[in-house]
């Protein structure tokens, strides 16, 4: 870290990112074998009911673009008698699983920026599904890393990370912090109904971290944050009703809405134009030619949605270089998806190149972070 007498600029930048990927992955073929075994058992046990339909790898890839997903608990998910993650409960004096993977991604971001935990002023844990209400996951991550200052959790579903980046950027702009970690541990396999043919393939697990700092203390190579914009519009089309007021086990029959549920076609129809227009409006406000954006790091939920949004923004069908995909190997990792894409696909850009980190999801919520590469 540079000396504390450095005059701060109030200009936020992204100094580095970090990524934790679980070692286990489930292919579409493995997932389909498990799901179809469940279908056979269900249909045999309920001969008078309307039979459930098989899934297939072809159906999954056509519907989503997903080919595989990383998970924290593979064997129980593939067990037709369980079909869900089963992570051993940890003692209160042990590091929680969300904090553990969050810390792993945060350490990588700090290492890449040449920072120590002592350099960081705040930790924001921005994710879709917290494993407990309190103490805040952010404070546990803060303690595990040895960071002074403060931390808090925030949940805006799939837009949590971009909302976290704007919050961190606002702290920098206001002079309330010099360096802020935005950590997104996403164990989304836990909120997924693995017995639902229309959604059993969607989600995967991961953790990302974004180090947002004042430009005056940033490493030579960093990303200037040109502008951020957030938007929310209430919708029931993506919902999860599980909470401490209704603690029925998620797998209990008759309570499917205690897990992830969505009206996929409505989401597609309503979110794509909303997000595309939001990007175009914000680009205009910032004086950025959207067709000149070098790269779009979009939320990794559905390949078709990204194709349409990028076309509306760039004015042409985006290439893989212009709008890279990690959805095929990671699945939908909620708020972490656009950050994974940015983390894995930014080193080849030249100084002066501009790009867009964009999220969208339940709420509806959407966030844009326009960036320019420096050095």
What structural keywords apply?
single chain, alpha+beta, nine-stranded mixed β-sheet, two-stranded antiparallel ribbon, 10 helices, 32% helix, 22% strand
Report on the structure:
This protein has a domain at 223-374: Peroxisomal Thiolase, Chain A, domain 1 (3-Layer(aba) Sandwich), CATH 3.40.47. The strands form three sheets. It has a nine-stranded mixed β-sheet with strand order 5-4-6-7-1-8-13-12-11, sandwiched between helices. 32% of the residues lie in helices and 22% in strands. By secondary structure, the protein is of the alpha+beta class. The mean pLDDT is 95. The protein has helices spanning 28-45, 57-64, 74-78, 97-113, 137-145, 160-174, 264-286, 303-314, 327-330, 337-344, and strands spanning 12-20, 24-27, 68-71, 122-126, 150-154, 179-187, 205-214, 222-232, 238-239, 261-262, 295-298, 354-361, 365-374. The chain contains ten helices and 13 strands. β4, α5 and β5 form a beta-alpha-beta unit.
Report the major sheet: 9 strands, mixed
| Helix percentage range | 25-40%
CATH fold-level label of the domain at 223-374: Peroxisomal Thiolase, Chain A, domain 1
Contiguous runs where pLDDT drops below 50 for at least 5 residues: none
Order of strands, widest sheet: 5-4-6-7-1-8-13-12-11
Strand content: 15-25%
CATH architecture descriptor name of the domain at 223-374: 3-Layer(aba) Sandwich
Q: Residue-averaged pLDDT, rounded?
A: 95
Q: Compute the gyration radius: what is it?
A: 21 Å
Shape category:
globular
Q: Whole-Å distance between the termini?
A: 18 Å
CATH superfamily of the domain at 223-374: Thiolase/Chalcone synthase
> What is the succession of H and E elements?
EEHHEHHEHEHEEEEEHEHHHEE
> How many beta strands in the DSSP annotation?
13
> In the CATH hierarchy, what is the class of the domain at 223-374?
Alpha Beta
Q: How many helices does DSSP assign?
A: 10
- In terms of structural class, how would the helical and strand content be classed? alpha+beta
């Amino acid at each position: 870290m540079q000396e504390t007498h450095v005059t701060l600029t109030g200009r936020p930048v992204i100094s580095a990112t970090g990524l934790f990927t679980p070692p286990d992955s489930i292919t579409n073929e493995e997932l389909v074998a498990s799901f179809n075994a469940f279908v056979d058992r269900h249909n045999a046990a309920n001969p008078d009911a309307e039979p459930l339909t098989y899934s297939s790898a072809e159906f999954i890839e056509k519907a989503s673009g997903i080919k595989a997903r990383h998970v924290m608990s593979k064997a129980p998910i593939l067990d037709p008698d369980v079909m869900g993650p089963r992570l051993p409960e940890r003692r209160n004096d042990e590091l929680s699983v969300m904090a553990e993977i969050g810390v792993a991604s945060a350490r990588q971001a700090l290492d890449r920026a040449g920072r120590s935990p002592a350099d960081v002023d705040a930790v924001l844990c921005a994710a879709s599904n917290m494993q407990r209400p309190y103490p805040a996951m952010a404070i546990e991550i803060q303690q595990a890393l040895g960071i002074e200052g403060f931390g808090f959790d925030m949940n805006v579903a799939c837009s949590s990370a971009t909302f976290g980046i704007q919050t961190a950027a606002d702290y920098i702009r206001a002079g309330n912090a010099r360096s802020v970690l935005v950590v997104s541990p996403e164990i989304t396999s836990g909120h997924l109904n693995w017995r639902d043919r229309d959604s059993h393939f969607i989600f995967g697990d991961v953790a990302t971290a974004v180090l947002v700092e004042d430009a005056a203390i940033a490493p030579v190579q960093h990303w200037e944050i040109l502008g951020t914009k957030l938007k929310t519009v209430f919708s029931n089309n993506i919902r999860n009703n599980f909470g401490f007021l209704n603690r029925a086990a998620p797998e209990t029959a008759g309570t499917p809405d205690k897990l992830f549920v969505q009206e996929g076609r409505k989401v597609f129809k309503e979110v794509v134009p909303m997000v595309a227009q939001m990007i175009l409006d914000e680009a205009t406000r910032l004086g950025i030619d959207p067709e000149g954006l070098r790269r779009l790091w979009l939320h990794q939920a559905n390949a078709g949605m990204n194709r349409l949004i990028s076309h509306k923004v760039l004015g042409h069908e985006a290439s893989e270089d212009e709008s890279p995909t990690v959805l095929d190997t990671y699945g939908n990792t909620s708020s972490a998806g656009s950050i994974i894409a940015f983390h894995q696909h930014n080193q080849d850009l030249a100084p002066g190149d501009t790009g867009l980190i964009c999220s969208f999801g339940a709420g509806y919520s959407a966030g844009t972070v326009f960036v320019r590469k420096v050095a």
